[in-house]
Amino acid sequence: MSDCIVIGGGLIGMLTAHELASEGMVVTLLERGEVARESSWAGGGILSPLYPWRYPEPVTRLATWSQNMYPQFCADLESRTGIDPEWIQSGLLILDSGDRFQEKQQMLAWAKESGSTIEVHNGNPVHYEPGISVDPCEYILMPDVAQVRNPRLTKAVKASLDDKGVHIVEHAEATQLLHIKGKIEGVLTDARKYFANTVVIAGGAWSASLLQKLVPEINVEPVRGQMILFRAKPGDLKHIVLTEEMGQARYLIPRKDGRILAGSTLEYQGFDKSTTQEGLDALRHFAINLLPGLAEVEIENHWAGLRPGSPQGVPYICGHPEVEGLFINAGHFRNGVVMGPASARLLSDLILKREPVVDPSSYTVGALRG
Ligand SMILES: Cc1cc2nc3c(=O)[nH]c(=O)nc-3n(C[C@H](O)[C@H](O)[C@H](O)COP(=O)(O)OP(=O)(O)OC[C@H]3O[C@@H](n4cnc5c(N)ncnc54)[C@H](O)[C@@H]3O)c2cc1C
User: Fold this and answer.
1) Residue whose CA is at the smallest distance from ligand 1 atom 38
2) pLDDT 10s digits, 221-246
3) Is the domain of 166 the same as that of 207?
4) Quick check: pTM over 0.85?
């Protein structure tokens, strides 16, 4: 018998298992498929919400805590596992003109409050990115924004879990929560029962289905995001570049080896994870418009992932109000990578009855969202 069962082997479940195992708990992690093949594999790994001032304070709170942790966390992971999560402080260049900067007051107030550096520039952003094609405009630079490469980060975290003795069971779908007289007892999978006094639901976009009977009010839904990857060269782009096209945030992310990711779409299509020609065309068109040199560059990959959407992007990080020992860490929407370490730490604080690292009240099931 384990002390804790974590359901879901995405980044959130793995980081939660990591925290708990680091505190000496015996942890079993159940994953329906293979670990880190869903949203946590598919994401861009930008360590900041896009237009972060548009998010409510509970998102900023988790993001800021994690941003401070990430450099050391990645360095530790690399030294323990030999896998480099590719934490790079690329900086974020936001190219927007006109109306957007009516948001300026909100943006500057947010920067002051969160202690983030925002530089407002007027002129031609080619000063920072010679390859891009854009008219002179007002634009901003957030020089501190960093990125990680999701598949590498999750591979490193998995190796570290193995090291800490976490029992990872792949191809084990949790089908039912076992509880009696208001206490959790374990989990039923398609193959057998697992027993523990603590169970964490970290099933990403699928979390609500497991909780339907116990927490009908939980609001987590799949939101598809497509991405494409260009086989570009180092130096073609240095910063993460973000802009908005017909109300959709679009970005380019330069990886350490020069490859460039273009993302992303935001689609409400249920649990359908397929890619579409329309998505590919839209992303390619955006990318080439912004960085014309990409017209000559091969598109190496095209994929989609399902974000765990939640109202206002505020995750559920809490214990169940009536079932003792049942906890939730889900609903991180567009920001699960940047909010991940703080979310795992906060949930572990609640489980271990420690002083919570941030105020937990905004993340309960009953907290107002939206
Ligand atoms: C295109 C795209 C771009 C993104 N870009 C960014 C970004 O730049 N920065 C950022 O911070 N975030 C980004 N995100 C969001 C981020 O990837 C997610 O918020 C985060 O990965 C969610 O992690 P998770 O562990 O909750 O979910 P997942 O990674 O989806 O993991 C959930 C896991 O639970 C398993 N599971 C579900 N049900 C069961 C069950 N019953 N039994 C066993 N296992 C189960 C699933 O198989 C899955 O492996 C992006 C997402 C997408 C799709």
Assistant:
1) 203
2) 999 999 999 999 999 999 999 999 88
3) yes
4) yes
What's the chain's average pLDDT?
Answer: 95
Domain count, the chain: 2
Pocket of ligand 1 (CB under 6 A): 7-13, 30-33, 38-40, 42-46, 173-174, 202-206, 210, 225, 227, 263-264, 305, 307-308, 330, 332-338
Compute the distance between CA of residue 62 and CA of residue 359 in angstroms, rounded to an integer. Answer: 10
Please say whether the beta carbons of 110 and 51 come within 8 A: no
Do 271 and 256 share a domain, yes or no?
A: yes
Query: 142 with 229, same domain?
Result: yes
Task: Reply yes or no on whether the pLDDT at 311 is more than 70.
Answer: yes
The rounded Å distance from CA 344 to ligand 1 centre is 14
106 and 8 share one domain = no
> Residue 90 — very low, low, confident or very high, per pLDDT cuts 50/70/90?
very high
Is the bond preceding 264 in cis, omega lying within 30 degrees of 0?
Answer: yes
Could you tell me the distance, in angstroms and rounded to a whole number, from the CA of residue 11 to the centre of ligand 1? 7
- Please indicate, yes or no, if residue 71 is contained in any of the structural domains: no
- Whether the pLDDT of residue 39 is over 60: the answer is yes
Are residue 304 and residue 156 in the same domain, yes or no? Answer: no
As a dihedral over the C-alpha atoms of residue 46, residue 47, residue 49, residue 53, rounded to 10 degrees, the angle is: -130
Higher pLDDT, 271 or 136: 271
Residue 305 lies in a domain: yes
pLDDT of residue 133: 94
Are 226 and 199 members of one domain? no
The answer to whether residues 302 and 156 belong to one domain is no
Give the per-residue pLDDT at 321. 87
CA angle 253, 257, 262 (to 5 degrees): 25
Domain coverage including residue 168: 4-46+152-220+312-363
Nearest residue to 16 via CA among 332, 240, 282: 332
Q: Is residue 61 part of a domain?
A: no
Q: Is 116 helix (H, G, I), strand (E, B) or coil?
A: coil
